[in-house]
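seq:
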Amino acid sequence: MADSGISPELKGEQVRLTPTVESDGPRLREIHSTLDVSEWWDMPDPGFPMTDEPESTRFTIRLGDEIVGLVQYGEEDEPKYRHAWMDIFVEPAFHGRGFGSEALTMLLRHLVEDRGHHRVTIDPAAHNEAAVACYRKVGFTPVGVMRKAERDFGGGGWHDSLMMEFVVEPSSGTE
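struct:
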């Protein structure tokens, strides 16, 4: 699939996803540094959100003109294993209001309809119940637990991750 290199703005009922730009950085770093986000994402790396993960395509989640989070994706383009992955964080003051699930739904639609993916993965910490519930809500299903897959916040021990996937099943043509 041809890639123009330019990400579109995606509009939902409540939120908009805009390609992340340098001027979004201070607010995104502020959100990323909150305890409720850094517990799962660690503290932001130097260069976040513009240069720390060049393999990621990032969107800023906006409620009106207010920045409330970030959602990102990456792609495996090897034809035999083609799929996308995604990740998200939302400002804690906006948790539980449907903004994250709407952002994920819009990005899933973009990845399937515009980018041509049939499979998208996400891998929250297995004990992050709120994230797992949100991902289930938008259609991700658990595949399995990856044991001791991610270092704990602060670098102490290790915790399990839950591999989840969203798969578009081929149409049988009989509907």
